[in-house]
Specification:
heterodimer; A: alpha/beta; Dehydroquinate synthase-like, alpha domain; 2 domains; six-stranded parallel β-sheet; three-stranded mixed β-sheet; 14 helices; 49% helix; 11% strand; B: Beta-Lactamase; five-stranded antiparallel β-sheet; 11 helices; 10 strands; disordered C terminus
């Protein structure tokens, strides 16, 4: 069990963010304020088609800031996409980045930023605090409510050669500004809403039980869980409801502030491992793993898990376990199945466990786990 | 907070500002300022890279290069990265290297230490590049550094060499050479000039006016203006030695101009022609005497022929075998006189030839005749 000392040193880093309807339109003003003369606008084809990249572009144009659009970003951004983005950034003589989209364009934008200022391959930054030179200014406009890449110190990039996901953790990756606008969320698909919602829940739960948690991260983590619990099922049924969308966006923001400072745990380490091989959506992997991770970790932080449980089992009595509640919750919103039904092969579990065991997210897991323990969790999730 | 005086419309603006949504409600960011400073540094860097001098920044404690400008790489044929891996002293020839090891690594140079010397940098190909190198000690962030600025002096050395040759030529010329400013005040006189005019020390000539070296004050006074008006002059005149004695000189002068054609100074070349003048005079006297002698020969011939004609007349009237002998002897005397006449004619031709030669005229092919042909023409 994790023993916490309330006097133990903690640091809480928060980027500047502006929440509310129309926040997206401030992109131009803030880009100008950051001294951006030529912007690289990083997005993905879906967001561009939905018109949100154009909306940001209009704001930049209004501020008389020229920009170049880079939309060649896939889900789980590849190292090659980052390096290609850096070429565009340099050739267009950009001096600032605006990212519009979910976790993938934002992580890609973070990668482009640090590579452009450090002149190193993106894969060399893998690990914690390995970014010596700060990146150019980065403004993020999230269009999903889950990754929290707009406020976090993490970027996850797929190493195409090794077929694995690398985690880069550095305070230098925290964007300079997040424009948290609910409107772009209205064009999210049902599946994307489910997966990203479960991602936010995983962030909040893992941050709350993290060995790096603090009173400040606890506040944000619990609020995130409360908001997800109340708003996520409702927004799936009413996707155009701006208030509900905003609640999920705030939930993601709270979760991001919590996990960016407290970090996450083994569920994320295992999800990264899965995504490296199987190209599965990050939120879905977390969703399929979270209940099993809670079961494995519960004894290490029972009070904390119980407080989360208290949010989920209101009116359902004390018999239900949190793991069960979480499982029921994800199924209730439509995230069904297991790793097996997601296409994961049982033979791959030892290799998946080894990779997860090397992931930096494991460092703050409330329970010290051996590689074999991770294998057991995969097996339960199978 | 005192906001009661704000009108209602402005209250909304103020509220926006207070909650951080004003146009200028900015979170502190050093980035724009850093960008500006960076741009300034890049501009300065571009200036340094554009200069022809090679600039080296050296860690004083290690003697290794910390930074170089683009010209340093261009001069030496190395990339910047390659240069930064080479100790500064290794950029010099082995004979000079040790000197720069000491100079570049002294971290205890006094503040503002500065030294200038010449040395040879070694290029990648091994070519020695002569440079004038200025070394200064500086301190950045408390760390001692040496800034070395090397200027390629290859052209300067060549120019100095050429100048030295020209100077030696001037100094060693047996002709007198004077350089004066545009007012005629002497700037330079070579040893030849001092020797011709009888000066032991050249210093006594400097700053005098050209006019003081000529007997004719009019010529002396006008020579500077004449050269400036006509660009050049060549004249024989009488010079005035240091001891006041006159002597014959030939003066040729010209204006020295800059690249733009503007006059810088005037230069005079003085040749002592006393000997030539005296020789010419002697020749003239000799020719006059020769002419007189030839005329005497002609008169003498006539004087001999007249009584000889009388003797021949008498002899022809005498019927005596001796008369024949007298006539034979008279013919012989006439032949001798004729030979004397011929000698006179030849002497006259030689005299004319010598005069023409001494006067510098070359007889043209059409006018040149042989002495024998001339002799026949004369008869």
């Amino acid at each position: 069990m994790i023993q916490r000392n309330q006097f133990e040193l903690r640091k809480f880093v928060v980027p500047e963010f502006i929440c509310g309807y129309g926040a997206l339109q401030l992109a131009g003003r803030y880009a100008r304020n950051f001294g951006m003369k030529q912007v690289l606008l990083v997005t993905d084809p879906g967001i561009r088609a939905a018109g949100w990249a154009n909306a940001v572009g209009e704001s930049l144009t209004e501020a008389r800031i020229p920009f170049t659009v880079l939309d060649a970003v896939s889900p789980s951004p590849r190292s090659g996409q980052v390096m290609a983005g850096v070429e565009v950034y340099r050739s267009e003589e950009c001096n600032g980045i605006v990212a519009v989209g979910g976790g993938s364009p934002m992580d890609c934008a973070k990668g482009i930023g640090i590579v452009s200022s450090n002149m190193q391959d993106i894969l060399t930054f893998e690990g914690v605090d390995r970014v010596p030179v700060p990146a150019p200014p980065l403004i993020c406009i999230p269009t999903t409510a889950g990754s929290s890449a707009d406020v976090s110190q993490f970027a996850v990039i797929k190493d195409e050669t090794e077929k694995r996901k690398i985690v880069i953790a550095s305070k230098a990756l925290i964007p300079d500004l997040s424009l948290v606008d609910p409107e772009p969320l209205t064009t999210m698909s049902r599946e994307l809403t489910m997966n990203t919602g479960m991602d936010a829940l995983s962030h909040a739960v893992e941050a709350y039980v993290s060995s790096g948690s603090s009173p400040m991260t606890d506040l944000h983590a619990l609020e995130a869980i409360r908001l997800i619990h109340s708003a996520l099922p409702a927004v799936i049924e009413d996707p155009k409801n701006l208030e509900l969308r905003f609640s999920t966006l705030l939930a993601s923001l709270h979760a991001g502030l919590a996990f960016s400072n407290a970090s996450v745990g083994v569920a994320h380490a295992m999800a990264h491992s899965l995504e490296g091989i199987y190209d599965l959506p990050h939120g879905r992997c977390n969703a399929l793993l979270l209940e099993h991770v809670i079961a494995a970790n519960y004894e290490a932080a029972p009070d904390r898990y119980d407080r989360i449980g208290a949010i989920f089992d209101r009116g359902k009595g004390e018999q239900a376990t949190l793991a069960g509640e979480i499982a029921a919750f994800r199924r209730s919103i439509g995230v069904a199945g297991t790793l097996a039904t997601a296409g994961v092969l049982e033979d791959a579990i030892p290799a998946l466990a080894r990779r997860a065991y090397a992931d930096p997210c494991l460092v703050t897991n409330p329970r010290r786990l051996a590689c074999e323990d991770i294998e057991r969790i995969y097996e339960h999730a199978f | 907070m005192s906001m009661h005086s704000e009108p209602p419309d402005d209250m909304d603006t103020l509220r926006k500002k207070i909650i951080g949504l004003g146009e200028t409600s900015l979170h502190k960011s050093y980035y724009p300022e850093l960008q500006s400073r960076l741009a300034e540094l890049e501009r300065f860097r571009a200036l340094l890279d554009q200069t022809h001098d090679a600039i080296f920044l050296i860690h004083a404690e290690t003697g290794r290069l910390a930074d170089v400008n683009a010209s340093a790489g261009a001069y030496l044929g190395y990339s910047k990265a390659e240069l930064l891996a080479i100790p500064f002293a290794s950029l010099f020839s082995p004979q000079q290297s040790a000197r720069f090891v000491d100079l570049a690594r002294k971290s205890d140079h006094p503040s503002g230490f500065r030294q200038t010397c010449t040395a040879s940098l070694l290029s990648r190909e091994g070519t020695e590049i002569p440079v004038e190198i200025t070394i200064r000690s500086v301190t950045f962030d408390g760390e001692p550094y040496i800034v070395a600025i090397a200027r390629d002096i290859t052209d300067r050395i060549l120019a100095e060499k050429e100048l030295k040759i020209k100077e030696s030529a001037l100094e060693s010329s047996i002709n007198g050479i004077l350089i004066a400013d545009l007012t005629g005040t002497i700037i330079y006189a070579n040893p030849g000039f001092a020797s011709i005019f009888g000066y032991e020390r050249r210093e006594t000539i400097a700053e005098r006016n050209i006019a003081t070296f000529f007997v004719d004050p009019v010529f002396g006074g006008e020579i500077t203006g004449h050269i400036l008006d006509n660009d050049a002059i060549m004249k024989e005149t009488i010079g005035l030695r240091n001891d006041g004695s006159p002597f014959h000189i030939q003066v040729s002068g010209s204006v020295v101009q800059n690249d733009a054609g503007q006059p810088l100074c005037i230069m005079l070349i003085v040749v002592d022609i006393t000997e030539r003048i005296l020789t010419d005079q002697m020749k003239r006297e000799t020719y006059a005497q020769l002419e007189k002698n030839i005329e005497q020969f002609a008169i003498l011939g006539d004087h001999i022929r007249n009584p000889l004609q009388v003797i021949v007349g008498y002899a022809e009237m005498i019927d005596d075998p001796l008369a024949r002998k007298i006539l034979d002897q008279s013919d012989r005397i006439d032949e001798i006189v004729t030979q004397l006449d011929q000698g006179w004619m030849e002497s006259a031709n030689v005299r004319r030839f010598l005069r023409r030669r001494d006067s510098g005229a070359t007889p043209s092919a059409g006018r040149f005749v042989s002495l024998s042909t001339r002799k026949e023409d004369e008869f």
